[in-house]
UniProtKB/TrEMBL annotation:
EC number(s) per entry: 4.2.1.79
Residue stretches making up the MmgE/PrpD C-terminal domain: 284-469
Enzyme class: lyase
Coiled coil (residue ranges): none
Keywords tagged on the record: Lyase
GO molecular function: 2-methylcitrate dehydratase activity
Name the record gives this protein: 2-methylcitrate dehydratase
UniProt source species: Subtercola frigoramans
Domain MmgE/PrpD N-terminal as annotated: residue spans: 19-261
Family the UniProt entry places it in: Belongs to the PrpD family.
Family annotation (Pfam families): MmgE_PrpD_C, MmgE_PrpD_N
InterPro entries listed in its UniProt record: MmgE/PrpD_sf, MmgE/PrpD_sf_1, MmgE/PrpD_sf_2, MmgE_PrpD, MmgE_PrpD_C, MmgE_PrpD_N
Length: 501
């Protein structure tokens, strides 16, 4: 690996392109290095994972709207859209599929200085691959780059510390992945990365307070912008430069300011892109830092269930800074305790999630979020007894660079009226690579079959799994099969909302 010293440069220094972060990322993307077998297998896993959660979302409101927008833009050769037949303009297919993948907050994650769902790279890269009639081998290479760049940026540069939404790392990574897929030259990829970053920086109000449907749209928008940025760059159009290091650039005015300095580590020339192996998927439909707490709550339900929740005085979750302030009581968002809050808000409320998982001993992507479940009086009473506190040691472990030490959990203390205290802790979710039951290929396949059963015929489920597991050898024609079509009648009674087109 090589480390680039990234800082703000005044215009008078005229920083050469070759020394800019965006250009270095482009060089990594243009490197023809082979993808390792281990990475290929994980790419297949994540393609299946994305399809699982996208299929589970097909009848949900944001996906219905996004799909209708894509269907208003038929195109040839074009790209596929989950759930329906036909081919559509690639940027709109990336948009619709990106919303479907993100809607349930149920796919892969990587957390470091910033947080991310690197599987968000797959919809735009896949859409361009289908439209340009590339092979499965080409797609694997593009996806490996998308994961590598986003994860490397997430390790080095915090966005949320400055209230910038994390998709600002996704625009550049998706553009880089598309560049690899298409075999573009360094200069073209460089220009597309700059445009993608410039158009995808936004505040993180999308994940604060009453969280709206835009939470699912934000990464899809970044993917759509990446497709359009590559298109413009291929036509010879240029981008703001230096986009990161300029005196009026992203770092100077959106991040740590004119005196900032970041060490960004990227693969050296000829070095394989392996970052996807550092990421981890979700067993449960909830924000990643709630995964371990769902597992611990299920364990406590089975081992230390209290006969009457009225006997519980308080539940205090001691955890990392990020968990406390983003999905815990440290956010100071009253909506996190509101039984009438949106689903998007509830999946970012660890007090709600812990209460339901503790009472039920399970977590379901539909039942656990239902209005009836969230408003149940005994649940609301328990929910309001749950708070979070930052613990310095769990914060340190959250930011550790040692994979064996890095943790996303904490310690829970349940105090009963008779003075009894139930104390337990968990470091990582059960499905994490270091967890009690790490996800393997069979688990990804089970997740797809489970989540797709309501929408797809059995033959379609098996067809998709066959195509996905042959990904590296797929021809351009076969790559069009890397989608799903809902069973006849599934969309009956569903009316798409009307817009401009």
């Amino acid at each position: 690996m090589k480390t680039l010293d990234v800082r703000v440069h005044p215009s008078s220094e005229n920083l050469p392109a070759s020394e800019q972060l965006a250009y270095t990322i482009a060089q990594v993307a243009a490197d023809p290095v082979a993808v390792t077998d281990e990475v290929v297998e994980m790419v297949i896993n994540r393609v299946i994972d994305n399809a699982s959660v996208a299929t589970a979302s097909l009848a949900r409101g944001p996906i219905i709207a996004a799909r209708a927008q894509a269907q208003a833009h038929p195109y040839a050769p074009g790209s596929t859209v989950f759930g329906v037949d036909g081919r559509y303009s690639p940027e709109w297919a990336a948009w619709a599929n990106g919303v479907a993948v993100r809607e349930l907050d149920y796919h892969d994650t990587f957390l470091a200085a910033e947080y991310s769902h690197p599987g968000d790279n797959i919809p735009p890269i896949l859409a361009v691959a289908q439209h340009t009639q590339k092979s499965g081998h080409d797609l694997v290479r593009g996806i490996a780059t998308g994961y590598e760049i986003q994860i490397d940026l997430v390790k080095a540069i915090s966005l949320h510390a400055h209230k910038i939404d994390h998709v600002a790392h996704l625009g550049p990574s998706a553009a880089a992945g598309i560049g690899t897929l298409l075999g573009l030259d360094v200069e073209t990829i460089f220009q597309s990365i700059g445009q993608a970053l410039h158009t995808t920086t936004a505040t993180r109000q999308s994940r604060k307070g009453e969280i709206s449907t835009w939470k699912a749209y934000a990464p899809a928008f970044a993917g759509k912008m990446a497709v359009e940025a590559v298109d413009r760059a291929m036509r010879g159009q240029t981008s703001p430069t230096p986009i990161y290091e300029g005196e009026d650039g992203v770092i100077a005015w959106m991040l740590d300011g004119p005196t900032a300095q970041y060490d960004v580590t990227l693969p050296a020339p000829g070095e394989a892109k392996r970052a996807i192996l550092d990421s981890y998927t979700k067993e449960h439909s909830a924000e990643y830092q709630a995964q371990a707490w769902i597992d611990l709550a299920r364990k406590l339900h089975n081992q230390h269930a209290v006969a009457n929740d009225d006997d519980i005085v308080s539940i205090v979750i001691h955890t990392s800074h990020h968990t406390h302030y983003v999905i815990g009581s440290g956010a100071n968002d009253p909506q996190k305790y509101d039984p009438l809050a949106s689903r998007e808000t509830l999946d970012h409320s660890v007090p709600f999630i812990f209460a339901v998982a503790y009472q039920d001993g399970e977590w379901n992507h539909e039942r656990s979020y239902s209005r009836e479940r969230a408003t149940r009086p005994d649940t609301v009473a328990l929910w309001n007894k749950i708070t979070t506190q930052e613990d310095a040691e769990w914060t340190r472990r959250y930011h550790s660079n040692d994979p064996a030490e890095k943790a996303f959990g904490g310690r829970v203390e349940i105090t009963l009226k008779d003075g009894t205290r139930i104390v337990d802790e968990i470091a990582v979710a059960d499905a994490h690579p270091l967890g009690a039951r790490p996800f393997e290929r069979a688990d990804y396949i089970k997740k797809f079959r489970t989540l797709a059963a309501h929408a797809l015929d059995e033959a379609e489920i098996e067809r998709f799994l066959d195509v996905a597991q042959r990904l590296p050898s797929l021809s351009a024609a076969e790559l069009g099969g890397l989608t799903v079509t809902a069973r006849p009648g599934f969309f009956d009674g569903i009316t798409a909302p009307k817009g401009l087109f």
